[in-house]
Amino acid sequence: VKGGYDHFMLKEIYEQPNAIKDTYRGRLLVKEGIIRMAGIDDNLDRFLNANRIIVVACGTSWHAGLVSEYIFEDLARIPVEVEYASEFRYRNPVITNKDVVIAISQSGETADTLAAIKLAKQHGAFVFGVCNVVGSSIAREADAGAYTHAGPEIGVASTKAFTTQITVLTLIALKLAKANGNISTSNYQYHLQELELIPEKVKKALESDKHILEVAKMYKDAKNCLYLGRGYNFPVALEGALKLKEISYIHAEGYPAAEMKHGPIALIDEQMPVFVIATKKGHYEKVVSNVQEIKARKGKIIGIVTEGDVDVKNLADHVIEVPDTLEALSPLLTTIPLQLLSYHIAVLLDKNVDQPRNLAKSVTVE
Ligand code: F6R
């Protein structure tokens, strides 16, 4: 069942090149310059006339929502709010019939997310579901939707669901950016081409696995870890920290790199591993100066960098390389080493990787 892998989580991490390909297959038509998604085409007016998009989700799916906020605003110029479903539903939120609500859920059964979309529908919002499980409650309750085609995700820690959610949301953002004229034809085409290359690049990123295991051995006994990223990679920092917490039970926090000086920098000493996502295109120089600040306080630095990086490599204790891509697509690559790192640390600590304590695969109670 585990296809020769020791755990479902590892199998699912390795399935990502194919899962992403399965998710864009038939939708991403690079030569034609078309993104084909019936759920969007059939409701294009709702999207194009929307005052804003409200994304509701929980956990890892919420992190995918945060990534999409950058893409929707940056490329399609549509205002986006990303909400924890549990907060949204009880906040007496302002929702109108000009809002589009996107609900993201791997299982399609998360109680809070389901309740949030029921509330949004009562207020006349148009609800679009991004689910992995076909025929699930959220998929059925939504007005329209697009499935991720990740295949069954068994490991409790979400991996391929996350990258395929980002894939679907990227397709939607690009499609809307084209439809509302906020992206140039050449930039649109460039994103399409680069998205098609992502599965091969994920494969490449997976090749660092042995090196990541060595890094994991060095930090497995840490009591706390910090994850930093900026822009598109800020949500990846949150997701990296969540993955470590949930399967290795090590306390970890994700932060936007620039927020460090507003508090978390006080935590940094020689005991503190800091995982810094510092890819070439996303505010690179600024992240490098954050890395210098960590080094000055003797923190241990593990950089997630673009292939061929020099500046972070010179400062960091370790670097893990990922292939170069467009900034908007970089979360699909930078996530990979952080998943592997959490996996290896949890295995080294002899934790139950696929079924961590206190957690359930689908949270059907609030
Ligand atoms: C993290 C994880 C959870 C889920 C969350 C939402 O690895 O598995 O945080 O992401 O419970 O679940 P779905 O996406 O099924 O709504």
Automatic annotation (TrEMBL):
Function: Catalyzes the first step in hexosamine metabolism, converting fructose-6P into glucosamine-6P using glutamine as a nitrogen source.
GO biological process, one term: amino sugar biosynthetic process
Enzyme class: transferase
GO molecular function: carbohydrate derivative binding; glutamine-fructose-6-phosphate transaminase (isomerizing) activity
Keyword list, A-Z: Aminotransferase, Cytoplasm, Glutamine amidotransferase, Repeat, Transferase
EC number of the protein: 2.6.1.16
Name this polypeptide is given: Glutamine--fructose-6-phosphate aminotransferase [isomerizing]
Complex and partners: Homodimer.
Active site residues of this protein: K361
UniProt lineage: Bacteria, Pseudomonadati, Bacteroidota, Flavobacteriia, Flavobacteriales
Highest taxon above the source species: Bacteria
Record-level GO cellular component terms: cytosol
Gene of this entry: glmS
Reactions the enzyme catalyzes: D-fructose 6-phosphate + L-glutamine = D-glucosamine 6-phosphate + L-glutamate
Compartments it resides in: Cytoplasm
The keyword DNA damage is assigned to this record: no
Entry keyword annotation includes Cell inner membrane: no
Domain SIS: 43-182, 215-356
